[in-house]
Amino acid sequence: MTELLLVLNAGSSSLKFAVFETAGEPWPVRARGQVEGIGTAPRMSASDGSGAEIPTHATPSSIRDARAALTHVADWLRSSFGGGRVVGVGHRVVHGGARYAGPVRVTPEVMAALRELVPLAPLHQPYNLAAIEAVTERLPAVPQVACFDTSFHRGQSELAELVPLPEDIRRRGVQRYGFHGLSYEYIASVLPQVAPSIARGRVIVAHLGSGASLCALREGKSVECTFGFTALDGLCMGTRPGALDPGVVLYLFQELELKPKDVEAILYKKSGLLGISGASNDMRDLLKSSEPKAKLAVDYFIYQAAKQAGALAAVLGGIDGLVFTAGIGENSVEIRERLAKACAWLGIELDPDANAGNATRISSAKSEVSAWRIPTNEELMIARHTGQALGLKAAVPGRSTYI
Predict the structure, then answer these.
(1) Which backbone phi and psi does 290 adopt, to 5 degrees?
(2) Lowest-pLDDT range, 34-43, 110-119, 321-330, 392-401?
(3) What is the dihedral of CA 181, 300, 282, 226, to 10 degrees?
(4) Does residue 84 register a pLDDT over 80?
(5) pTM above 0.90, yes or no
(6) Same domain, 215 and 88
(7) How far apart are CA 358 and CA 224, in angstroms?
(8) Which of 255, 309, 357, 380 is the most exposed place for a label (fewest CB within 10 A)?
(9) Residue 402: what pLDDT?
């Protein structure tokens, strides 16, 4: 019987999944896909290991949450891979807090600890945990592993992790954690293959998507990240403001007399690109728009990203390479071009044709600092961690699936 490893990445409106066959080395990808538009207009799509589309079941409009989406995916998997046995499930969990510095097998005690972190990641953590609970209900005997977006950044210097508040508050776990770690860890793992000239050097990775951040790598390890205690800090994002004067939050409470839930909604769901443009949190929509506020939102996104890149370059003492990844970073020729131009002072010069063609190396031959476009693969990183945590044979799936 074929043994399968299932990877789940659950969000508020989407459920991404990947199925790996745990035979042979490297592990082949049997299927990957997602259910998006959960709660509004759900739609499922899937592809095989080569990227070819796989037919899926009609997606019912009744899918309102992650549990219903998982049921739909499970039914499809059963009909498509009926002879297979699921031997483990790996999950992306955004926040591991101070307790978890690496992947951990899920137990009731682990779940209780992760629920305590929901206030630190309300846009992600509840949905990550809901997926774990849904699998427990359907497959109670199958082991599950939580893989954290914070883990890759653990081990940064004391200065990088420090939040300058009184010690009694810091003892309660108030520190800078950093996020998007699974994505950054994957990029660091493939740099020796894709860009060996910079793999052991000073690299800034730009994970640009609806959630956006920058990470400074030295010798493949995280040195600094624009995210901090929560996923609100750093860059302007789709609906999150990024770096914000704490006095603004005090103003919302003290002068506008808003309630905590209202402030939370503003910071997580109504700010960022959406807040500036008043129209959309989708960079594709904003780039197409001729509205002044849409242009302002894009300009601000570039401005902040360039500013933060300069700060990370200062931390690294200069840079050897810049890597673009995630939805915007991988797909937007214009955003890559504009951000590279804003960072030209660092020694970056793009090759316009390579950038327009979505090549892997997109910098010119004379560029002092090389620039790269490398698709991320968080699902593969989760599979690696899950296989290793469960002691599965050949626990390192294919290393070249970024191509």
Answers:
(1) -100, 5
(2) 392-401
(3) 10
(4) no
(5) yes
(6) no
(7) 27
(8) 255
(9) 30
